[in-house]
Structure formats: C-alpha cells, structure tokens
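Chain A, query sequence.
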Amino acid sequence: ILFGYPGHEKAILYRKGYVIGYNPETKVPDWVSYHFTDAYLIKKAGRINNFRPDPDLIPGQRAELVDYNRSGYDRGHLAPAGDMTRNAQTMSESFLLSNMAPQIGAGFNRGIWKKLETKVRGWVRQRKNIYVLTGPIYVDPHYKTIGPNRVGVPTHFYKIVVSCSETGQNLDAIAFILPNKRNPDALLPQFITTIDEVEKLTNLDFLHDLDDSTEVQLEAQKSTMWP
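Chain A, predicted structure.
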C-alpha cells in the first residue's frame, strides 16, 4: 500500500500479489492495491481461469459463481491476471471472486479496460516501479445488482497509477474513470482525470501519508497520456 490505506476498510484481504479493501455489502472491493515492478513481468505462471468464491469470506458476504452465471456481465479482474504471472500463487489468487466486479464484456472488459491494463504493463517496463489502485464507482446510489447475493454492478471504474523511485521519490501519477459500458479503445485518453475527482466520487482518500503539499499537487494534476 503506497502512502496509506484509502478507506472504507470493512474487511482487508491480504494476498501475495495485492491487497483488497473489501465491501461485504456490494460483494465487490472498494479498492485493490498492488505494487508492480519490471521484475514481476517475468512470466512463470500461465492463466488458469480458476474462478472461485473467496474462502476467507463467509457465505452471504461474498460473491458466488452463480451470481455471474447468465448475468450478462464478465467477472472482471481488478488486480489483473496478466499482472500476477510471477508465480502460481499470485496467479491463482487473482481468480478469487473477491478480486472481481461485474463488467460489461465486449467493448469494456475485453476492450478498452483490457487496453488500459496492457498500458500499465508497458508503463512498468519503462518506469520500473509503480503502484496501482483500482476499484468501482457507483454514481447511482440505487445501483443494479446481479445474482442471489446481489453483487453490485458499478457504473464506472477507476484506476490510479503512481510511479516513483524505490525510495518513494520522483512521484508521478495518472488517473482514469471509465464508464462500465462499451467504448472504442481509441477513446481511452478522454477518460483521464484527477485523483481528486476519484476521491470525490468514491469518498476514499488516496496517498494521504504524503506531505500535504505533495499530496495536493499530485492529486490535482490531470496528466496527459503516458507514452
């Protein structure tokens, strides 16, 4: 976790490759955070599609496979399997349903969102050391749910990428808010936003352990698309 937990920590789930702030009401994480370095790009484990409910959560407070069955939504990774290839454990844990949220499939999870995930892997090759924070946004308080466990369907998703040196210096950040619907991949730069805007829509507080002046500057900047 870079510079503090974001908030809403009803349940914290620690995995080898990522950390979750889990919400048992929506059955979807409020946030997922992971540290990503170029060393983690070494592929030692292939995709396994081992989707399963999280055994660390009790029935009634977690998503089940039946919730997604014929729902019309993909089981969308928040910590992507493609970022968890460094060993069998990180790959397997990425398929726990606690790391999922309902996402539109064609045009989003298998489209523009996938493109953003691929961009992140390109950025870690260039920048060497990044932190990624991802989660849902519910613009409508009366959000749609799926399945008998009423898994919340986000209206949008955010992704925040912070790059820095290993000592936490030379900070840079880029943030996105994408609607959970089909959009052409080419529109990705249009969804760049500020961390301040993500905080406004989620009531989370990112990077709060930074000194105030650095936090204010970093969260207010709206980056251009990183190459």
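The two ends are 25 Å apart (CA to CA). The chain has five helices and eleven strands.
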